[in-house]
Design goal:
It contains seven helices and eight strands, in the order αβββαβααββαβαβα.
Length: 223
């Protein structure tokens, strides 16, 4: 009986310690700056937006550096209209994204799969107007080289076919202005959707935390 009690205690205590260590590491490392380049006064305006849990990068659809409409044409987003000046990018676990459209849809198996990084990932793309002025977004100005590095990171996050084309999932969007695409990598407690955003910003030379698994760790640097 004593052994059973010890086992029960360990089953409760060990996960609690692990969760506490995880949260502590996040709190410390998300504030530990990876210094980037000085903020630019002129260049390409990009946005980092949050829904309170998840962060997206919102980039101009067309600049001198990259034309996203080549990989992500307007026809993929029939409800957006010709005035959609930007594309938003959010990376994450495929099952979680596609099967959990509302929190009430969340299943234990889906959460467990995402937690242990077993499933494939997707890129969620919206065609939208500029979010300038939105309280949910922060704006950054990047020099051309910085934006090129950011765009290269995002581009390399898409899984591509043998001809180098992105791989959309037809009918997967939440509406007529968004669509999901096959992506590379696997979601895990370390490689979260928000850490993907953090990696993209670090690739562009933006000062951001060393590890950013939660949206707060991103937005404190982006706002």
């Amino acid at each position: 009986m004593r052994i059973v009690r010890i086992g029960v205690v360990l089953a409760l205590v060990v996960p609690a310690i692990a969760a506490g260590a995880y949260l502590l590491a996040s709190a410390v490392l998300s504030r530990l700056a990876v210094e980037g380049r000085p903020a630019a006064r002129e260049g390409v305006e990009v946005f980092v937006c949050t829904n309170g849990i998840h962060t997206d990068l919102v980039l101009p659809a067309v600049t001198d550096t990259v034309d996203w409409t080549i990989d992500l044409p307007d026809g993929d987003f029939p409800g957006a209209g010709p005035q959609a000046s930007h594309r938003s990018f959010g990376w994450g676990d495929r099952a979680f994204y596609l099967e959990t459209r509302q929190w009430s849809d969340l299943r234990f198996a889906t959460a467990l799969s995402a937690l242990f990084g077993r499933g494939p990932s997707v890129m969620h793309v919206y065609a939208l107007h500029s979010p300038a002025g939105s309280p949910d977004c922060g704006m950054l100005v990047l020099k051309e080289g910085q934006y090129g590095a950011l765009a290269a990171f995002v581009r390399d996050s898409f899984r591509r076919d043998g001809a180098g084309r992105v791989m959309p999932l037809p009918g997967s969007g939440y509406g007529a202005t968004d669509l999901f695409y096959e992506a590379v990598g696997h979601y895990s407690p370390v490689e979260t959707c928000n850490e993907w955003t953090g990696k993209a910003l670090r690739a562009a030379g933006v000062t951001v935390g060393a590890w950013t698994p939660f949206e707060g760790g991103i937005m404190r640097w982006a706002r």
